[in-house]
Specification:
110 residues; four-stranded antiparallel sheet; three-stranded antiparallel sheet
């Protein structure tokens, strides 16, 4: 919860799922692979969207600021290389979602 000097408050709940390495864990609906993780120069995202609706991808810093977004189109395999050289060290989050499912994965930049 965040409070302003004028008494206004705002709150938001975020569910975080921790993943490391190349292999996606069981129950990963989009078969998202994030590597390397932890990362220093770039992060690769791979996903199989052949048997699900389009998937939206959002990359956030630890303050919740959106840094990157994209769409993985149904019927395809998705691959994206994200240059993270300009981002400070820290914890970042990748949200993948469609109309049925939402998932948040953690990325460490060192």
């Amino acid at each position: 919860t965040v409070s302003a000097d004028n008494g206004c408050q705002s709150s938001k709940t975020v569910n975080v799922v921790t993943e490391t390495g190349v292999d996606a864990p069981d129950g990963n609906p989009f078969m998202l692979k994030i590597y390397p993780n932890p990362a220093m120069d770039f992060v690769n995202l791979e996903m199989d969207v052949r048997e699900t609706d389009d998937v939206l991808i959002e990359f956030y810093n630890s303050e919740g600021r959106l840094l990157f977004n994209d769409r993985a189109v149904r019927g395809n395999r998705y691959y994206r290389n994200i240059d993270i050289n300009s981002y400070p060290k820290g914890i970042y989050y990748i949200r993948t979602y469609n109309s049925d499912i939402s998932k948040v994965s953690k990325v460490v930049i060192y």
